[in-house]
Design a protein that fits this description.
Elements (H helix, E strand, L loop, with lengths): L1 H19 L17 E10 L6 H10 L4 E4 L5 E5 L3 H8 L5 E11 L4 E2 L24 H5 L14 E6 L13 E6 L13 H10 L17 E5 L6 E3 H12 L4 E6 L7 H12 L3 E5 L17 E7 L17 E4 L3 E4 L2 H4 L3 E5 L1 H18 L5 H10 L16 E2 L2 H8 L4 E9 L10 E6 L2 E7 L7 E7 L4 E7 L6 E2 L3 E2 L4 E9 L6 E8 L10 E5 L4 E4 L11 E6 L12 E4 L4 E8 L9 E9 L2 E7 L10 E9 L2 E9 L8 E7 L4 E3 L1
Parallel strand pairs: 6-8, 6-10, 7-8, 10-11, 11-12, 12-13, 13-16, 17-24
Antiparallel strand pairs: 1-3, 1-4, 2-3, 4-9, 5-15, 14-15, 17-20, 18-19, 18-21, 21-22, 21-23, 25-28, 25-31, 26-30, 26-35, 27-29, 30-33, 31-32, 33-34, 35-36
Helix pairs in contact: 5-9, 6-7, 9-11
Amino acid sequence: MKKIKDLIFFSFWIFILLFLGNLNGSDTWIPVKGKDLFVPGEFIVQYRPEKTSLTEIKSFFISKNLEIKKVGVYAPIVVCKGRNLEEVKSKLLPNPNIVSIEPNYIAYLPEPCYSGELKQNENIEILTQTSDSLLSYQWGYYKIWAHLTKDVPSNAPTIAILDTGVWYDHPDLKGKVIKGPDFVNGDNDPLDDHGHGTHVAGIAAAISNNGIGIAGISPKSKIYAVKVITAQGWATYADIVDGIYHVSNRSDVKIINMSFGGPHSQILENMINYAFSKGKILVAAAGNENTSIPSYPAGYDCVIAVAASDEYDWKADFSNYGNWVDIAAPGVDIISTVPGYIYGIDYGIWDGTSMAAPFVSGACARILAQYPNLTNIQVEQILKNNGDNLPPLRWPEGTNFKRLNLYKSLSGTSSPDASVSAYITDAITGLPLVGAKFSAYLGNTLVAYDYVPVEGYSFFVIEDLVETGNYIFKITKPKYANFQTPPKNLSYGSNYLGIIPVPPSTGGWQLVISWDMTEELPDFDLYLWLPSSQPYIVGPEFPGSTRFFPWARYNRDSALDYIPVESISVKKTLQGTYTIAVYNTEGGNNFKISNMRAFIYYNNSLKYIIEAQNGFGNGTEDWWVIGSFSGSTFIPFNYFTNEWPGPYNLKHKFSIQKKEKIIK
């Protein structure tokens, strides 16, 4: 009982210490929360590293008489001094190598909420307990059903904790903390001089079943400690974006926990998007201001924003909320690790969305440990779809998120209920390719299949693909070319493959262009261009309507003599190299189609799928240059231009319009 009494006593002192701050910090200026939004006279400049060097950037600043306060250790940023933002912008802009300029904003730890009471879970099943001595006080561990989950695989991914640092010699963390940079003090020793980061780290990944303390949500995960927050509980955006950029480029880090908040920043959002593009899962505390106004980075689309709930699933009275929040997790009376050299005891009970966020970070690590091929988007969807419903009368009206349930999230991923759908059409007629077999393979194993129905539409769905991994889809039908997709890692939920036109088996090269229509097809022109040397016979003379069939087909085949009803066909009569390009006369204002793709077949097999990923709309005359044929070789180009693609003097132009096709 002595240890429990010490914990209660400690909760009082931790409250006092936060307000007094650590006066031994290296910062001489300390901002006041609610008053100071940025460091006076400091501005962050983000530049393009692929366009210019740091040496060039420094020379540019010197030429503009701007003092450089700091250079990003990892991120492409410079912090300079200036009287105001307008002055700095007037000196540095326009410059094509500079992405953004803004004040050096400040982020803060959420308002302190420390509890003075230990609550033991009275409904614990003793047989499910580990040997951790304080596990029975971890009500949040049981609330998310972590005690019912399997043993954590040893390959659990590393979690980066961007915070006040971590006490890496804590008995429940020792040997599992990787020392990252300390951006506050400019060294490589991220020792926690506040306590917040150590508390967050313990919730996410404290060692389990070691006879002492608590159990982390992902106890096999390593912690990558990065110090960006001062002993007084604040951080500059310059340090934060430097830290985010750094961990984004570490292959071992899969999850980034950010239990702090501040104002919107374009540079911060740029770094968040960069981390997301690297496949990182970003988790952030929603904030403790009891408001629906977003806090950042939690408010960005790429970040999982976490609100705090209590043991009854009610909203913690301090927690932020709103439709920008993604999930809730326990955040009241949370026991975890703290630096003993600061507080004289190794465990403390804290409240806050700061504590809720690492529950989610640990859960993400557990999911990736069990299913390492999932993407960051898939992991987020699994968490959100498998949470427990919140009591509607205890949360603000319009709350549309759930509370984390680790057990359901892990068991749900073993049966993800993934589905795949497509439109399968005849490339000549545009009609459903009746009788075609649509097969789903996981490796060499046939997992599921279905047939395009004799009656009805070409659209159909294969459901209940219960295993995750890279799928290959094949479409086969006698007398038709074989279709096989590149490997596709299925997303949790619905996966749409688009329109797949399959031409008859005629041999030679065949090109099919398809797109998705809006509900009402706009009046637009689609042209296929051919060389003026006329090595081709073009036809048919009177093609039909494209109102119902969103496709166009070019066929290079010397043996093809019949006239298709619903296509453009070209018969090659001479040898030569030529470029295929699609041309839109209407520009971006009236061209309302999507998923534009070219399917390249050769000798009855699909060789390329080329996607016009950017779509049309760059100008009034937009060209999509697909590629070049030369003998038996096809070279994909896939670029856009609003100028003549050349180098050939193209002559024959085909126009596809809403009401009719016209050969010009």
